[in-house]
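protien #1 (seq + structre)
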Amino acid sequence: MSYKDYNNNLFGYYGYINRKNYIINILILTLIFFGLSFIRFEIFQPYITYKFLYNTLIYIIDFIKFVAVISVLSVVYRRIADFSEGKSNKFKQNMKRIFGIFFLFPFFYIFCRYFIDIIPIVTNILDTITIFVLIPSGIILAVIFSFIKGS
C-alpha cells in the first residue's frame, strides 16, 4: 500500500484516512477504551479460584486499553496527514508539532510518569499541565479534525 492510499488500518502510521472512517474508528476505539475502563472486574475475583487467573484477566484488559490508545494515535496521525496533504511544508511541520505536544506527550507522560516521580514539584507541574490543558485540548483537536476537509 502506498503512502497516498486511504486505509482503515488501526495500527499503521502510513497513508491517509478520510473523515467518515476517522469518525467511525475514533468512536469505536473510544467506546472500547471507556467500556473496559468502566467495567468493574473486581466482582469476578471471588469466582476465580486462582489469583494468577484474575491477575492475567486484569493484565489482558489493560493491554487491550493500551492497544486502543495506540490505535487512536495512529488514526489521528493519519487524519492529520490527510488534511495536511497539498499544504505548505510549514503547515505540515506545525501539525506534526501539534500532534507531538497534544497527543504524544500526554500519552508518554502518563505511561512514564512513575519514572520521574522522584522530583515531586516537576511531577505536580506536569500533572497539572497534562490533565487540565493538554488532554482536554487534544480531545477538542480530535473532534475538530473530523470536520476539516482533506485533500
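ok now protien #2
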Amino acid sequence: MGDLISVLLRQLKRPLAAHGFTLSDAQADVLAQARLAGQADERIPALLTALEAVIAESVAALGRFGLRFQESLDADMNQIGGWKSTAEFLEIANEKSNAELRITLASALALAFGGDRRYGVDLLHLARGEYGDETVIARRFLSFASGIQPVGMDWAERIAEWISPLI
C-alpha cells in the first residue's frame, strides 16, 4: 500500500504543484510511509487542501461537458459533442480522461490521508465497476481506509454503510 500511495502522489505532482503543494519523489515516499505508520506529518493539511483543489478543478472540467464524474466514466464521446475535427475530438477526450483520473487519484489520497469520505460514493462506483486500474485503486483505498477487507459478496454493501454516515 505504501508503494501505491507513493505512486499516486507522484502521478499528481504537477496538478498538486499547480495548487501550491510541491513534492519530490523522495518526499512522496516519506509521506506514504508516514501514513502507513500512522505518523503525523506537517505537510498533510497542505496536501489535503491541494487534493481538494485538484478534485474541484477536475469536477469543473467535466462540468463544462455537462457531466458529473460517474456519468463521465460511461459517457460516449458522441454524447459530449462540441468537436468538429479529429484534433478537437482528441483534445476533449484527453481533457475528460485526465479529469476522471485526477478525481480518482485525488479522492483516493484524500481518503487515505484525511479520512475524507465525501468522495467515497464515487470511489465505490469505481470499485463496483469495470474501469481497469481505477477500479483496483478504488477497491484498495476503500479497503485501506475502512479496514474492511475486499472479500465476500457483501463487501460493497459494507463499504456503502461505512461511507453513508458522512454523506
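The mean pLDDT is 91.
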